[in-house]
Amino acid sequence: MLRLSQIMGQENALKTLKAALPPGQPAHSYLFTGPDGVGKRSTALAWAQALFCAHGGGDACGSCKPCVKVEKGNHPDLILVKPEIREKKVKEEIDIDHVRDLIGRLSYRPYESQRIVAIVDGADSMNVPAANALLKTLEEPPGETVIIIIASNMDSLLPTVVSRLRTVRFAPLPYGAVVEILRSQRGMSAEDAKTMAALSKGAPGSLGEEALPVLRQDRARAMEFISFVADARGAEAFRLATELDKSADKGRADGTLDMIREIVRDIISIKVRRGCDKVINMDVSEELEKLSGRLTQRKLMMAYDAAVNAAHMRKWNINPLLTMGLLYQELKER
Ligand SMILES: [Zn+2]
After folding, report:
1. How far is the CA of 57 from the centre of ligand 1 (A)?
2. pLDDT for 24-33, tens place per residue?
3. Does 318 lie in the same domain as 216?
4. In terms of domains, do 215 and 154 share one?
5. 36 CA distance to ligand 1 centroid (A)?
6. Which of 53, 95, 121, 328 has the fewest CB within 10 Å, making it most exposed?
């Protein structure tokens, strides 16, 4: 597991959390919110470890007894709650029994430390009875407890619950930070890390390495298609669309259409800002710059709308060949 000092790109969140470490005092309850895969859970665990650490200070030492117990997942004062599929249910949920168990535990004193830390992960899936039960605890928090609620979408929580929590926001990570995380923590090659950083849109935890070759291919096709549009190479655009249509996995057509939209968005950004600073697909920024010189801003705007429409058409199950054929036609005629 990570230490607080190894959490990258979340300076704002870390500032709040570090200020609450000794000699500071943590609040009773927090909401960690932000997109999936940007490090909310890792940060919650790292912070809990720092709160339990026998040496105190700005981070966990990693070697004292409490630190080792957190690392091994058997610290008696650290409670983790996460969604589960319960009997007769079809989807994962945090239900009232989870919350009752938690409240029960919080009514006892901590066994070994100054306080109990409870992490409720995936709180988006908490049902209403569970949320109401939790609300009572949040209104009158028992003794020495710190409750961390993790939710990617704040709107999924009852407003009454949110109002009781101290909000700590997690943002998508900057490109450079993701590259560094992937290299140092997952041991990826520089090339793969750069591609992954771009394709995960700042949320490295949201994407498994196995997804990389497929996404890379979708993107390559998307860039090829845009290039055909730029040069009015209809026959080649048609060949590419036919290939996608024949592909056993129709998801690849949808993936390619998504990528077309994203790539066009990036090229528009390069044109408007006269640089690549806000580009998502940073690892192919040179190719994007070249493409931007071959397309007018007007055509790019049309292309963006057309790509959004094409994605809608796919939702109505219109086949990839026709969808992409129309997309090409629409752009050619402008
Ligand atoms: Zn320690």
Report:
1. 9
2. 999 999 999 9
3. yes
4. no
5. 28
6. 95
